[in-house]
Structures are given as C-alpha cells and as structure tokens.
Amino acid sequence: MCGIVAYFGKKAARPILLEGLRRLEYRGYDSAGMALLSRKGIKVKKTSGRITALEKILDEKDDSETLGIAHTRWATHGEPNTINAHPHLDYTRKIAVVHNGIIENYSTLKTWLQNEGAEFASQTDTEVIANLIGYFYAKADNYENRKQSDSKNKFERAVQQALRELTGTYGLAIVCSDFPDMLIGAKKGSPLVLGIGENEYILASDATAIVEHTKQAIYPADNEMVIISSKGFNTKTIDNVMVSKNLKQIEFSLEQIELSGFPHHMLKEIIEQPKVLATCMGGRLDRTNNRIKFGGIDSCSRELTRTRRFILTACGTAFHAALVGEFLLEHLARIPTETEYASEFRYRNPIIEDGTVVVAISQSGETADTLAAVEQAKERGASVLGLVNVVGSSIARATDAGIYLHVGPEIGVASTKAFTAQITVLTMLAIELGRRKHISGNEAKKYIEQLSQIPDKISQILKQSDHIKAIASANVDKDNWLFLGRGFNYPVALEGALKLKEISYIHAEGLPAAEMKHGPIALIADSMPIVFIATSGPQYDKIIGNVTEVRARGGKTIILATEGDKNIKQYADYLITVPDVPEFLQPLLTVIPLQLLAYHAAVLRGHDVDKPRNLAKSVTVE
Ligand code: G6P
Fold first, then answer.
1. CB contact at 8 A, 97 and 46
2. pLDDT digits (tens, 9 = 90+) for 156-214
3. Which of 2, 176, 280, 315 is the catalytic position?
4. DSSP readout, 198-227?
C-alpha cells in the first residue's frame, strides 16, 4: 500500500528511482512522483496514473541530481490526482516528504498548523508531516540564529520533533533543500529497508527496489530513523538515542522478481508453484523419523504440543488458507480451531484461555489488520505464531515464533503461490501435531509421502491451461458466477470466487454447496456459470445432488472432478480433472484450475492482471 524509494549516492538518482518505483508498483499505482535535490533546490514532478506517466514528465535533463525520493500511491486521503500525489513539500518549500502509512491525528495537526500560518495544497495526511517538519525547522532557524556547525542537527531535530507529534503509521523518506547531501528515513508500523551499496544508499518500502543494487541491508525498527549523508549513515530513535543495527543479507535474487519471459507475474507465480512448494517442504520433511521439522518454532515446540485451541487469523486469500487450516488442524491434529478475519478479531474482545495459540497468516507480513490482531493476541497473553512469506517483515518480527513460506517474492496482486504455500505449511503443522498425539508412525509416513507428491500433481494440472482458457473464453461474457464446494473444498470455492472478482471484475460468490439452496439458487438462470468442486470424498453424492439442482434451473456447470470419474461427465457442461489424492490434500490441487480460470478470464477481458483496479498487494492501512 504505497511504495516509497529514495536514493543517495554517486549515480543519477532519476533512473534508479524510476526502476525502484516499477518494482514497488504492485503496492499501489494510482499516482506517482519524484523529488530530486541539488544545490539549486528541490525539483518535484508528480502526476496521477502509473509510473509510465511519471516517466514521461521526467527526462535526462534531470540526471545531474544524485539524491532523490519517489513514491507510488494507493490513495487513502484525497482522490488520486496530481496535487495529492507525493512527494509533498512543506509551506516553506524546503522540506519534501514521501510517505507510506496513515496519520490518524492529521486533522488536529492540520488545524493547529493552519493557525500557525502554514498553508496546505492537498487533501492528504502526508502534507501535515511535511508542514510539521517545516514548522519546527523554520522555528529552529529563527531561534538558533543559524549556527552553521549545528545546522544538520537542526534538520534531524525538526524531523524528530515532528515525528513525536504523529499518531498512526509511517514509512518516510525526507529531504531538505538546505542539505543536498542528506537523506532521512523513519519508520513506525510501515515497512522500511535501507540498502547499503558501495558509496550509495537506497531506502525503500521493501527489498525488491534494492536487490538490483545491493544485497546488504538494515531494517530499522519502529520509532527509529536513519540519517544518511556523504559521511555515511547512522540510526537513532526519534528520541535521539543512537542504535546500532546488524547488516542483513537480502535473500532473494533479481531473477525472482522479474517476469523472465512470462506475460504476467501472476501467471509466472501460478506456474512456479510445483517448484516453490517443493522448496517450502524441502528440509522440513524428515522421512527417516516420519516427522516434520520447523526450525522457526523450535523455541515453542513443547508449548505447541500442549495447544488446546488454535485461532487462525488473516485477511483476503490468507484468510481462505486459514479456513483450510481449520479443517486440517481439526482433522489431522484433533485440536479445536477457529478462523477469524484479523479485522474482526482485533475489535471483538476475544477470549484467550490458557493453551490458546494464535496463528497469524500473511504473505507480506505487513497487513495492518493482521499485525494489529497479533498485538491484540499478545496483549491478552496468547502465544502467537506467524506464517509469513516476507523474511524480516513486521508480522515476522512481532510474533513469538514462526514458519516462513519460502516461496520467494510474490508480485502479482492476486495471491496464488503464497496461498498454496500457506496450506502446505498448515498441512505440515497439522501432520506433525497429529503425529505427536494420535497419528501412528506409519500413517505419518504415508501422509508425508502423499504431501511430497503434490508438486508433481500440480504440474500435471498446469498442463490443462489451454483447456481451462477455452472454458474461460466460453463464459467470460457472463457477469455473475457461483463457486461451490463442500468440506475441505469449501474455502477453495471462496478463493476461486475471490480470484475471479479481483482480476476480471466479474461478480462471483463462493459458498458451501449446500447453502446454495438457502438463497443464491434464486440467482440461477440464463446459463449462469456455476463452478463445482466435486472431487472424490465423503460428500461426493451430496454435491452431485447440488449439481442436478443447478442444471434443472438453467445453470451451466463447470465441474472440477477427480481423474477417472466416469459418472461425472453427464453432469458437466465443462469438465476439469485433478489427480486423486486424499480429501485433506485436495485444496492444494483444486485451487490450481481456479487460479488459471481467473487468470485467463482477466486476460480475455483485457485487464491489467498484475495491477487490478483499486487493489494493492500489501494493505498497510486498517
Ligand atoms: C490484499 C491482497 C490480497 C491478500 C491480502 C492479505 O488484499 O490484495 O491478495 O490476500 O491483502 O495479504 P497478506 O500479505 O496479509 O497475505
């Protein structure tokens, strides 16, 4: 949700910042801007629209500057127009700021600043930050009578004074026209990474904008700031206490975030699922002892065995993975489990008893509601685990212990490989906890073997991509779809509907199949596409009953069935098959055709698959 990137070094800042913005564009893409700094002052260029629109209003004439800050926006305060685009200048036009996050007390601060004579041009909360820093800076200017030796500290101090007034979240990059060799970054609740290259620094919302230049980075903590100048960098708290940070290695490669010949990141991420899921399991499946090992939860291994209740909490696609996790943990580990939207959990006065373990599931590790749910659970004394993809992200750091997904960066806004990895990790966790209680060694061995074969089975399903495209093509003009499944496949139906909605803008509803007759059946008419997940399992006959109810009312059935099911053909207008696996492993397979269906429908409708309208990959606002 908004991407910020800043550069200070010896090279031209403009092309580096533009490339950084392209890498961060998945975080928001309704407007963009850049501020470049030289001895002549600050030059700000910004526009509504994508990074390509910004690129057009910048040119090589802008390449003498080696310090700059840039932003790609997902609007929260004020519509996505040029005035509201970042960077924002303060009323003295000396300070420029780019911001990711939300300032909750901006309205009070704005009124106060206006009474002090500060003028505002935009509707954003960010302009308050610029004006607040500008206000303290101007005050120090008048008061101190310009003691040159202390002047850099004056900029730093003004930033600190301003940040102490803010309530809310921020990842910030700030420059001041009086110091064309100084860049300040600060963070609270929003992500920020400082990449440290040879004589150059890149400050960004995430490491995707940095990895091309250096793999060495530091991750400032909340309420910390980094001060970068020609003499190097240092880290302090906003209360001016020096802190030392360890250098960390960025763990992914440039190749992992590039399209590598694919038309879209989403398709690349769908296709790479067999490979990345094998990596996610790699080293964790201990076939000798029929166990599953997770390094990240060693510290609370005993406590986990004693878990009396799990609460899984997440948002969006991760929430659907959590719902599958509820089935898995109850079925395999026999531990009572509830799944909660993080946004609801945090405001619900939840009951946390002794033995309750809260598991926060998040691809980005930055989703504001999930992070807030983690804090809420900790306050109430729960042990909190994180299932997160992005290493070092806020949720990874806020939780007591965790399991990384290890599927590499996910760039497509519609989550795919993170979903299957979340389910893979939950399956491993459920098998391992079940093994510690009641699952026999032989059963555990069988489950581990079956799980390890999933990547190959996904590869087989991916071969049906053209067939699925033809089904999408035959139905893409229909504006309402239903997705129905039962048991383990009910959350997959929800996920199939979400995928279609997100990227093709077709209205779709996911439901437990039996619920259809309690309302949604009224919608069925006129060849409405109904996707059924009717794979083998205890509920097979029941779902066939639901299929016939739909066909009797004129619905068109797209059925996902188990390979070799000859009976099903008579019920299917369109048939997609998946290999036979036990019911608890089916979500890992049945979701694949639904990802492809949504992908092809969106492409056929001519949409920007990787950047669907109004969405952002990482929702860092509540
Ligand atoms: C956004 C994305 C979804 C994602 C959800 C949760 O809404 O568009 O694709 O599932 O956030 O994100 P997380 O990073 O916490 O998994």
1. no
2. 999 999 999 999 999 999 999 999 999 999 999 899 999 999 999 999 999 999 999 99
3. 2
4. SS-EEEESSGGGTTTT-SEEE---TTEEEE
Q: Which residue has the tokens 């296709």?
A: 271
Pocket test for ligand 1, best of 315, 609, 622 (most atoms within 8 A of CB): 315
The tokens of 321 are what?
């993975």
Give yes or no for residue 317 CB within 6 A of ligand 1.
Answer: yes
Compute the distance from residue 547 Cα to the ligand 1 centre, in Å.
31
Number of helices (H) and strands (E) in the chain: give both, helices first.
19, 27
Q: Is 2 a catalytic residue?
A: yes
Q: Which helix (H) or strand (E) holds 384?
A: strand 383-388
Q: Does ligand 1 lie within 6 Å of residue 618's CB atom? A: yes
CB of 363 sitting under 6 A from ligand 1:
yes
**DSSP state, residue 333:** I
Rounded CA separation 540/534 (Å): 6
- For residue 352, the 8-state DSSP code is -
* Dist. CA 543 → ligand 1 center (Å): 30
Q: Residues 45, 457, 501, 617: which is the catalytic one? A: 617
Environment class of 115 (CB within 10 Å of its CB; exposed 0-12, middle 13-18, buried 19+): exposed
Gap between the Cα atoms of 319 and 423, Å rounded: 11
Hey, what's the torsion of the CAs at 576, 580, 584, 587, to 10 degrees?
-20
DSSP label at residue 191: -
Distance from residue 459's CA to the centre of ligand 1 (Å): 25
Q: How far apart are CA 24 and CA 41, in angstroms?
A: 27
* Segment 56-102, tens digit of pLDDT: 999 877 788 999 999 999 888 788 899 999 999 999 999 999 999 99
Active-site residue, 617 included:
yes
Q: How far is the CA of 209 from the centre of ligand 1 (A)?
A: 20
Which protein residue's CA is at the shortest distance from atom 4 of ligand 1?
Answer: 316
Of 330, 338, 331, the C-alpha closest to 310 is 338
Q: Residue for token digits 């500290």? A: 153
Cis peptide bond upstream of 87, omega within 30? yes
Strand-pair category, 88-89 with 337-341: unpaired
Of all protein residues, the one whose alpha carbon is nearest to atom 2 of ligand 1 is: 617
Interatomic CA distance for residues 402 and 384, integer angstroms: 8
Helix (H), strand (E) at residue 396: helix 394-398
> Helices 417-437 and 441-452, interaxial angle, to 10°?
170
Q: Are 9 and 66 in contact (CB under 8 A)?
A: yes
Q: Which residues, 6+ apart, have CB-to-CB distance to 107 below 8 Å?
A: none
32 pairs with which residues across the strands?
A: 47, 72
pTM: predicted TM-score of the whole model, two decimal places: 0.89
